[in-house]
Amino acid sequence: MLIVAVVLAVVVALLIAVLATRSPSGERSRQSPLLGRPAPAIVGITLAGEGFDLADYRGRWVVVNFFATWCIPCVQEHPELAEFQALHAGTGDATLVSVLFDNTADEAQAFFTENGGDWPVVADEVGAVGVDYGVARVPESFLVTPSGIVVERLVGGVTAAEIDELIALYEGAPE
User: Domain 32-170, what architecture?
Assistant: First the structure.
């Protein structure tokens, strides 16, 4: 019985040590090896049947949003993404691209038909784009500068105001 108590005490002590020395979850959620590096390529076919190449969007801010129709936070953030896209559609200074994550094109098409949204949605049928970006779960978004550098990783739902604040923060900053 004494051995069990000692083993349990050691396990509890190790758990406390691990929890006490790790970064707060808010810090970890924004960490990514992509920050400060060129955005991985996104080349594919959109739900509208058009070709898409992220490189064609150089010269403007791009929000790369990974989502799924079965993801409740993704559904909740959708109106914010639509607001962001609508705000920037006239000026062309920023845009949005969504990448399907563990979802079919048919499900996504039905979702966009029902909920609106006028931006490219790329099917990532084998999950290669998600792997390139290091996406583990959705929603997750990346802010890409006009020169193609990833400057932010946003885990969880985002708002149009939050994205605009980040763009304002990075605009004019050296890359």
Answer: 3-Layer(aba) Sandwich (3.40)
